[in-house]
Design goal:
Enzyme class (chains A, B): oxidoreductase
Keywords (chains A, B): Amino-acid biosynthesis, Branched-chain amino acid biosynthesis, Cytoplasm, Leucine biosynthesis, Magnesium, Manganese, Metal-binding, NAD, Oxidoreductase
Binding site for Mg(2+) (chains A, B): 218, 242, 246
Pathway (chains A, B): Amino-acid biosynthesis; L-leucine biosynthesis; L-leucine from 3-methyl-2-oxobutanoate: step 3/4
Strand order of the largest sheet of chain A: 2-1-3-12-11-4-5-10-8-9
Function (chains A, B): Catalyzes the oxidation of 3-carboxy-2-hydroxy-4-methylpentanoate (3-isopropylmalate) to 3-carboxy-4-methyl-2-oxopentanoate. The product decarboxylates to 4-methyl-2 oxopentanoate.
Shape of chain A: globular
Bound molecules: 3-isopropylmalic acid
Order of helices and strands of chain A: EHEHHEHEEEEHEHEHEHEEHHH
Oligomer: homodimer
Chain lengths: 346, 346
């Protein structure tokens, strides 16, 4: 019989609330014969304040035993900026070699967008997750003086770029439009830019059916608001991917519905799924958060583990729920979770 | 009697067309007693193809003699990506220490925006122009092999950050709302992020009337489409500034109306003014380009040289011209230039 052994990290702020709903929907959608085991981990601000720990080697060993990880959100105003981001989130992405950071954007019917007209938005960003300016390379000299110099080193390897580019080509190949756009800034960041561009062009030869395209990251932000329909699959570096996926989320219904997967395609380590939004301390504990992004992240998780039919049922349920919201009174986090659970079970 | 000794660099593609109109309007707006001298320089793709030169020491010596520089656009598909950008544009910004890269965004009445509703947009981005990931530091080893490693080093100095932050505070102080937002990614790029944040907080003490705010660059792209009215003055690093000002231009009427100044505030070197758009090879030579961004760059240039009344007349003329476009047939580049010349003279 089948089973899913899931690590659950609710984290901080609304992370707690939305993960509860994600699990509710997960239980509702899974067939009887699939045994779901979950173990909750207390990572985040509370544990950091109590113990000074963000993510220990023992934690990593323990997390490694799971089939996948569901994360709510990490971050709290009480913790200095960077401590939990570098010490937990990025540490985990790097330790588990989550080099494919998958962020789909689809504007669903009935969902509000800040864009005028009725733009068609249906693309996926494949963001590199283990290199670029995110490596923590760099440093500071003469800290706090008027002669301080701080550097950040973006590290890009042929190995790291090629595997994510290849993954993106395969995803483009599998979609009806078969189009892949490389987003970089190769006219300024010429060292990294040439590497990315050359690898992209080389791998393209193996995918003759995929139409390719290159856009500078600054221009990409323009197209995301003036012509988002031009995008099908985008592949880009860690930092550019961070920036354009927040914008992509904003134009395709907001971060309330933006899901993401931190994927280790080889399966050597468990992949992690999380909403794009943060812990939103301003609305935490009030039952106001929309759990849809987490629920959609559960769909990505199921798809990754091979439960395609269940993933599709969740996508469908969220789409219907969103389409029927107009004109109705706002519901609480758990009311939305309940409604989605009913839909996916039905 | 007063005089302006202007270096004119039309450059490539539509650069030629829009600069001609910028000069037309400049001549029309200047009072009789101001002597305008211009010298045209042939930098860009043509000269590079003919001579292999992008910008020589002799060129820099010659440009240095001018009061200011008006640039159209540089770049052509025939030249490999990066050659003219690094070899001309960035070389000039660095050589002339253009550390304040000024990019105002104002959505004028009657101007189309891709955003729904009627957003209020009126902010200025102060982008650092001589540091960050733009320094060209970094390199490549094992180029072209499967073991290639390419690095890009973002260099940030207390000196460089403080002067641009101070400039931004002064600009915020001079505006009615007196609000300054720092945009960075200090939770991930912690070395540079701490330097920027600490310097920002330190300088803030000297400007008690200015309200301050911090936003991560990814979140900033969300606000730029969901709540652009929250911004008054933004200060940010070279790369983040590049990205968010293209997005800012897109939401506030498009790059057809986005002007910029590469400013050396001390006046040791001439400042350079240019539209945010590029050379647009696809529409070059057809008289289709909108010269408004260049004309507004001329206004920034005049303001920088102390011709405030003339700058205001240009801003006004462009605003009126834009407001009266709706429903009228499209005009050519020179027709728009002619119309603006008449308006500013009147
Ligand atoms: C919180 C932060 C470290 C993270 C990132 O920059 O990757 C977040 O913005 C994201 O996009 O998942
Ligand atoms: C052409 C390029 C070097 C330049 C930049 O990145 O600064 C452009 O995008 C700009 O914003 O002026």
């Amino acid at each position: 019989s089948r089973s899913i052994n899931l690590a659950v990290i609710p984290g901080d702020g609304i992370g707690q609330e939305v993960v509860a709903e994600g699990l509710k929907v997960l239980s509702a959608v899974l067939p009887q014969d699939v045994k779901l085991e979950t173990r909750e981990y207390d990572f985040g601000a509370k544990r950091y304040r109590a113990t000074g720990e963000t993510l220990t080697d023992a934690d990593l060993d323990s997390l490694k035993q799971h089939d996948a990880i569901l994360l709510g959100a990490i971050g709290d105003p009480s913790v200095p900026s960077g401590v939990l981001e570098r010490g937990f989130l990025l540490k985990l992405r790097f330790a588990f070699d989550h080099h494919v950071n998958l962020r789909p954007s689809k504007l669903l019917p009935g969902v509000a967008t800040p864009l005028a007209g009725e733009p068609e938005i249906d693309f996926v960003v494949v963001r590199e997750g283990t290199e670029g300016p995110y490596t923590g390379n760099g440093g500071t000299i003469r800290k706090g003086t008027e002669h301080e110099v701080a550097t950040e080193v973006s590290v890009n390897t042929a190995f790291g770029v090629e595997r994510v580019v290849r993954d993106a080509f395969a995803r483009a190949q599998a979609r009806p439009r078969k189009k892949l756009t490389l987003v970089h800034k190769n006219n300024v960041l010429t060292f990294a830019g040439h590497l990315w561009t050359n690898v992209f062009n080389k791998v393209a030869e193996e995918f003759p059916e995929v139409t390719t395209d290159y856009i500078h990251v600054d221009a990409a932000t323009i197209y995301l608001v003036t012509d988002p329909a031009r995008f099908d699959v985008i592949v880009t570096d860690n930092l550019f991917g961070d920036i354009i996926t927040d914008l992509a989320a904003a134009v395709s219904g907001g971060i309330g519905v933006a899901a993401s997967g931190n994927i280790n395609p080889s399966g050597e380590y468990p992949s992690m799924f999380e909403p794009v939004h943060g812990s939103a301390p301003d609305i935490a504990g009030q039952g106001k958060a929309d759990p849809s992004a987490t629920v959609l992240s559960v769909a990505l998780l199921l798809r990754h583990l091979g439960y395609e039919a269940e993933a599709a049922r969740i996508d469908e349920a969220v789409a219907t729920d969103l389409a029927e919201r107009t004109g109705k009174p706002a519901r609480s986090t758990s009311e939305i979770g309940d409604a989605l659970s009913v839909r996916v079970a039905g």
